[in-house]
Amino acid sequence: MTPDLIPSVDPLMDTDSLQEITSAPRYVRFGPFHVDRQRQQVYRGSNKLRLQGKVYQVLLVLIYNQGEVVTREQLKRALWPADTHVNYDANVNTTVNKLRQALGESTDKPSYIETIPRRGYSFIGSAEFSDAPFPQETEPAPSGDTPKAGDQSSPASDKASNKWLTLVIVALILTGILLGAGAATLWITHFSPQLRH
After folding, report:
1. Residue 101 and residue 104: Cα distance in Å, rounded?
2. Is 127 exposed, middle or buried (CB count within 10 Å of its CB: 0-12, 13-18, 19+)?
3. Is residue 7 classed as helix, strand or coil in its secondary structure?
4. 181 to 127, 150, 157, 185: CA distances (angstroms)
5. d(Cα 25, Cα 27) in Å, to the nearest integer?
6. What does the alpha-carbon distance between residue 44 and residue 38 come to, in Å, rounded to a whole number?
7. Which of 40, 59, 81, 162 is 20 to 30 Å from 73 at the Cα level?
8. Which among 136, 116, 111 is positioned nearest to 126, based on CA atoms?
9. Burial of 12 by CB count in 10 Å (0-12 exposed, 13-18 middle, 19+ buried)?
């Protein structure tokens, strides 16, 4: 059996909290996200997110303290050894912002990470824990032809759209030329004899 490979977590947190995190079930699920603690990987549906190092550690600390305020001091101690000399406030802010960005979250309408002014952060989502993998859920396909904000079309469909657009433009230009030539011919044949008289 492979041991859990959890990154070091706050050695100054009370021993019960540390033991709870390291002995917790391997799999965590919240919203469309799945965490495999043994592999230290986070997925949104079937897409793997690039959460590494400190960003991953912050996520775990917040999840395992869901509903509670995790102070900036707790995060500082969880992320950096006591003898590390960094600008802790700026680094905690940057790390939490990277986590929010990876989760597609905004500070205005948080779904998972709430800022508690002058205190810290709180995980406000609902996390589930399991020793067995959660069943894969597919994200529902958008209904109708209207893409959702943030959806990206495939390069193949972009090329097809561009080809059709080009064909329509060329057809309109040719139609204009033919109509112009027809009108000019009509004008010459109809009005030209009258102008000579």
Report:
1. 5
2. middle
3. coil
4. 71, 46, 36, 6
5. 6
6. 17
7. 40
8. 111
9. exposed
Amino acid letter, 45 = G
Residue 4, token pair as written in the block: 């859990």
pLDDT in tens, the chain (197 residues): 433 434 444 333 443 444 455 667 889 999 999 999 988 899 998 899 988 789 999 999 999 999 999 998 888 888 877 777 777 778 888 999 999 999 998 878 899 999 999 899 999 989 999 888 888 765 554 444 444 444 455 555 566 667 777 877 888 888 888 887 777 777 677 766 666 55
CB 128 within 8 A of CB 28: yes
Structure tokens belonging to residue 64: 């395992």
Place of tokens 């869901």: 66
Q: Which residues lie closer than 8 Å to 186 by C-beta, 6 or more apart?
A: none
